[in-house]
Amino acid sequence: MTAQDSATAPTSITVGVPIRRAGAPSSRGTLFAALGVLSFSLTFPSTAWALESFGPWSMVSLRLLVAALLAGVFLWRGRVPFPERAHWAGFAAVIGGVMIGFPVLTTLALGTATTSHAAVVVGLLPLTTAVFAAVRTRRRPSRAFWAAALAGAAVVVAFTVQQSGGALTRADLYLFGALLLCAAGYTEGGRLSGLMPGWHVVGWALVLCVPLALVGALLGLSLEPWHLTVHGVAGLLWVASASTFLGLYLWYRGMAAIGVTRASQLQLAQPLATLVWSVLLLGEQLSPAAPVAAACVLVCIAVTQRARS
Description:
Layout: H1 2-8, H2 26-40, H3 43-50, H4 56-78, H5 88-109, H6 115-121, H7 125-137, H8 143-163, H9 170-193, H10 198-207, H11 210-223, H12 230-258, H13 260-264, H14 269-282, H15 289-306
């Protein structure tokens, strides 16, 4: 894995512009990113399962520790050197946004919000990521792009207000904060994945979280009630190994191959997939507005793909 990835890693990347690697055509990059999205679509249901056994802080910390253990094994086996100083700022964005910010805020949100509600709100993530990538490259999207972007944002805000009885709830504020942090982390992670293999980015970002995650796990397990259940353990293992480690590896490898903006739009399928999982695995009853809102968001963001960006 190491030799292949190292051999195909380009020397530079422009965020949001598709990167063509030898041996990794566009279709292959799309496949990697799509598999990452499939893993992500189970994140909220598996988190809801994990919360049956652990408190929110314990769960997030244990999630990071398990994922970091897997990453550490791969880094050690591959003898991957520590990231150069020039990349530390990018890694900080990935850690703060993807590894810590998004898991913590979405886990807190799921304490009171359903997974279907959270899935629709987070359906704005592809658009948010595309906007971050556009700002990062200082490109000027067309008016059609911005019109669709604003329409999608309006749908999400209207849905959250309608579901919460006329006002945004604390869970919604957590979710919107998670969107911003994750989009920034995705953008920087995509940039770093063009400078080094994607699994190096994921691996070192996770390993660098270990000290904080270890303290969080010790405090969380000592202060929060916990009891092991089949659902709880299965949810923790999935969200740690598949969503946090494998899913991010596939996602960053796909972004490096086809570009951040293009890859981000594959997440359009994630809210609808999560809605299906929430019904099948959690037995949730969908609000009639949830699939309608999700579909509207998909249409709005699809328009941004046809518009000049």
